[in-house]
């Protein structure tokens, strides 16, 4: 069982497919932004946070984001196809 949970559905925002993931143990919220199945940018929310010490949390969130995209391959494939490159 993943220590992270997807908390919002994926949407297209600023040229990327974005959705939020919660790291359950810490309660921290992250935005994940993807342009394909293999790339994910993890942004701590609120975006003004400057604490970068949560490297392990970010890695777990990124892993969950990729897993979520693969679990919903058809949906994400459609969304990635709508991105303007």
Order of SSEs: EEEEEHH
Could you report the average pLDDT, rounded to the nearest whole number? 91
The level of helicity is: 25-40%
Q: Which shape, going by the Cα principal axes?
A: globular
Question: Using DSSP, what is the number of strands?
Answer: 5
Biggest beta sheet attributes? 5 strands, antiparallel
Low-confidence stretches: none
What does this structure look like?
This protein is α+β, with helices and mostly antiparallel strands. Helix content is 32%, strand content 35%. It contains two helices and five strands, in the order E-E-E-E-E-H-H. Strands 1, 2, 3, 4 and 5 form a five-stranded antiparallel β-sheet that branches. It is globular.
Write the layout of secondary structure elements.
Blueprint: E1 4-6, E2 11-13, E3 16-23, E4 28-36, E5 39-45, H1 55-71, H2 73-82
Antiparallel strand pairs: 1-3, 2-3, 3-4, 4-5
Provide a quick synopsis of the model.
This protein has 85 residues and is an alpha+beta fold. The chain contains two helices and five strands, in the order βββββαα.
What would the keywords be for this entry?
alpha+beta; 85 residues; globular; five-stranded antiparallel β-sheet
